[in-house]
Write a structure and sequence with these properties.
The protein starts with a helix and ends with a strand. The strands form nine sheets. Strands 2-34-33-32 form a four-stranded antiparallel β-sheet, with no helix packed on it. A four-stranded antiparallel β-sheet has the order 3-4-5-6, with no helix packed on it. It has a four-stranded antiparallel β-sheet with strand order 7-8-9-10, with no helix packed on it. By secondary structure, it is mainly β. The protein has helices at about 1-5, 10-15; strands spanning about 5-10, 45-55, 65, 70-75, 80-85, 90-95, 100-105, 110-115, 120-125, 130-135, 145, 150-155, 160-165, 170-175, 180, 190, 195-200, 205-210, 215-220, 235-240, 245-250, 255-260, 265-270, 280, 285, 295, 305, 320, 325-330, 335-340, 345-350, 360, 365-370, 375-380. The relative contact order is 0.14. The longest helix is centred in the first third of the chain and has 7 residues, at about 10-15. The protein has two helices and 34 strands.
């Protein structure tokens, strides 16, 4: 099963992260075969707005960073590029000089990536290196940048903040890590004066950017079961802020929305996912590890719809895009579902490799990055 390929004890994770045997994208036999796709008469017109290649992701997952009118992308071989988000035009491209493991984080002024052996590299908006720092262990989560601060989370669950311009260390927070965790990249989100950090063990943590002081910590997924495997409840993907709510989902746990200021639960519902959520004015969308896509009411968490038409296709984090919900799969297809009832209404192909990155919405374009490094911007007409 996909999820067992992503499970690893912390001690092994720190020592062996990056080994090909731990590749969550590897094709392995499973008793749950992916649903075969049938010919689909598209109910919407989807066209390619632009396409670029940045290089393969290897065993890691890279998500583009949108900042103002620029899109920053990276690949495992050290390539980092700044693209015009509307046209895909390459503004600059550099080589980091070492393999990369996580990224990209940017506020438009500073661009940050995680490199091999826990190295942190920061560049200015023109691609000139600003500083270099050393994390305590490997970095799988994309760094985040906001209010002059860079926040980095390493796999030993140490969260460290640096001055965005100089790289000087500002604060650090250490959180406990369960014996068994998902080998994924629990995300972080900077919003206003806070950074929201997805945690192993099903917790969501809010810290002040200025000093790393905990604002609140809530349990999204409560560990249950007799074995360590049954008790894995890591937060999946990146928390999403919408209006005054921050929403998240955990593996073998729950999906829910919480007050961004206090952490008070708006609502939670039983759900399991190893990727993140999408949120819009009306709904919260999830894709579970069995390939089911579901929509919940953002206001109260009531179930709006659920579809299993993409069963076991190893889906990416969904994206709410116009009247559709878009999600990528392990064969590089991007599927469009009706936002109102979950019906499949469109499909496009990319380069045939898995899509594990979080989709990015840039104006009228929906952007995906594949494991083979194709960055595709789609427009729905």
């Amino acid at each position: 099963m996909r999820i067992t390929e992503k499970l690893l004890g912390l001690s092994l994770l720190v020592l062996m992260a990056g080994c090909s045997s731990l590749n969550p994208f590897a094709s392995k036999p499973t008793k749950n075969q992916p649903v075969k796709l049938v010919e689909l008469k598209s109910a919407l017109a989807v066209r390619s707005a632009w396409k670029q290649s940045i290089g393969k992701a290897g065993v890691y997952s890279f998500t583009p960073a949108l900042a103002k009118d620029s899109l920053f992308v990276a690949g495992n071989d050290g390539a980092i590029a700044r693209l015009d988000a509307a046209s895909g035009r390459e503004v600059w491209r550099i080589k980091a000089g070492m393999d990369l493991t996580a990224g990209v984080g940017s506020d438009g002024e500073v661009v940050v990536v995680g490199a091999a052996k826990g190295v942190i590299l920061a560049y200015d908006a023109d691609g000139k290196q600003l500083w270099k720092q050393q994390a305590s262990s490997e970095i799988l989560s994309a760094p985040v940048v906001g209010m002059g601060v860079v926040v980095v989370r390493s796999v030993d669950n140490r969260i460290v903040a640096y001055d965005a311009k100089t790289g000087a260390k500002k604060w650090n927070v250490q959180r406990a890590t369960p014996a068994l965790t998902l080998r994924n990249a629990p995300g972080m989100l900077v919003a206003g004066p806070n950074v929201y950090v997805a945690q192993p063990g099903g917790k969501l943590l809010a810290l002040t950017l200025a000093a790393g002081v905990p604002r609140w910590e809530v349990v999204v997924g409560e560990p249950r079961g007799a074995t360590e495997l049954e008790r894995v409840t890591d937060i999946a993907g990146t928390p999403v802020l919408f209006d005054k709510d921050v929403c998240a989902v955990s593996y073998q746990g729950r999906v829910g929305c919480f007050d961004a200021a206090t952490g008070a639960a708006r609502w939670t519902k039983e759900q399991s996912s190893d990727v993140g959520v999408a949120v819009d004015q009306r709904f919260v969308f999830t894709a579970d590890e069995k390939g089911a896509v579901a929509a919940f009411s953002r206001e109260g968490g009531q179930s709006a719809w659920k579809t299993e038409a993409l069963g076991y296709r190893r889906l990416s984090t969904p994206a709410s895009f116009g009247r559709t919900v878009a999600v990528g799969d392990f064969e590089g297809f991007i599927h469009f579902l009706s936002r109102e009832d979950g019906a499949l209404i469109g499909r496009v192909s990319t380069d045939g490799s898995p899509i594990t990155s979080v989709p990015v919405i840039a104006g009228t374009n929906l952007i995906f990055q594949t494991q083979s490094g194709t960055v595709t911007a789609l427009a729905v007409e």
